[in-house]
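Quick one, T. Sequence first:
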Amino acid sequence: MTDSTHSTGPFIAAIDQGTTSSRCIVFDRDGRIVSVDQKEHEQIFPKPGWVEHDAAEIWTNVQQVVSGALEKAGIARESVKALGITNQRETTVLWDRTTGEPVHNALVWQDTRTDALCKELGRNVGQDRFRRETGLPLASYFAGPKIRWLLDNVEGLRERAERGDLLFGTMDSWVIWNLTGGTEGGVHVTDVTNASRTMLMNLHTLEWDAKICESMGVPMSLLPEIRSSSEVYGEAKGALEGVPVASALGDQQAALFGQTCFAPGEAKSTYGTGTFLLLNTGNEAVNSYNGLLTTVGYRIGDEKPVYALEGAIAITGALVQWMRDQMGLISTAAEIETLASSVEDNGGAYFVPAFSGLFAPYWRSDARGVIAGLTRYVTKAHLARAVLEATAWQTREIVDAMEKDSGVELTSLKVDGGMTSNNLLMQTMSDFLDAPVVRPLVAETTCLGAAYAAGLAVGFWPDTDALRANWKRAAEWTPRMDAADRDREYKNWLKAVERTMGWIEEEN
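Structure tokens:
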């Protein structure tokens, strides 16, 4: 991917430590991609509902993709002015401060083993026990309960933690600690966006909440220092020796940043394994009464933090993979569009993919997936269409909740992520939302956001206005659906969602 216009630099590199793979992208001053290197890691499923990663394997892969991206770009590390980090959020790793070894596989955000613990922590208050301070409902999704589970269930960990021998991190902290020297002086930090996903940080003070840590049974000596999303944490060792490590943002917040949603009311939605819609609410943390999360959007240096409302959908792209890998109804992900386009509509079928419960706006871990409205008429093409519609309807539910909570009406939705190459899905989305859907020229907005934040920290870009000037639209879809049809279909969808609930009984 190298060409003569790029070779001199300067550049910014970004590491995206994702759920299925790690990659490194090198960007130039125009925010264009110079090179990419990517490597998948193993998904470990010890029991139903349990999902783990090997943090040591991930660190090895990160080092390889960093070297690989520099090599492909044909550039020296001297021309890389800063390195940004973005990461799968909530995934929880504990490691030994002296040896640098993880003490157990990382527990991934999708892992539901802390369900029972979360109910127990809710005591007589329920899901909202820590919501005022943290902006989050008690759910197996977040990191705090995952730390507690490890300390309770892995032999000897509680004692080692009390002695101060262990460090906790989400993947940003694990990568930064290792990048900056690991056991040889590695920096133990996290940023406000990742910290806001642990259920242990107070949203208003942006500091660890001692009372919640105590209630959750998490010793504070484990926790990294909370810093802004855009500042120099330390210098890299290894392939990027001497390069400032200058940003950290959870992947969804990084995409918000990369989509340049810097003003209140601007929203982005990222379509990957799951889907995440974030709405910038400015310097105010808006409480959600409609099942959304209140989260930190980003914080640049010592500026005021910018907050966001977030709606999370567990399964979107993963449903297409499931159709391919488990059902064998398609042989490539791209085929779903062709198959779905071969019919006019869903044939009366609705697919609610509550494989790991329902996320926003319901937060029901007792729900499981359902295909409703089946008749003999339904073909695999109708199911393919129902799969795409599921992503669009789940987006619509979140947009409705956001409008209720914030009083801000969505003017248009900026989208990114792998699924946005599916034009039928994008049109369906615009139809169901009754709003324009816009895809940017650089679809890798997560990495771009990390690069932007790192570049700002070292003065590579002067300010957020310069970043806005970089943002360019590639495509836009506008609604073409009759209002009566939209309302009828939405009603059917909501009926199907009801059918998923209460499938898992309490006692197990």
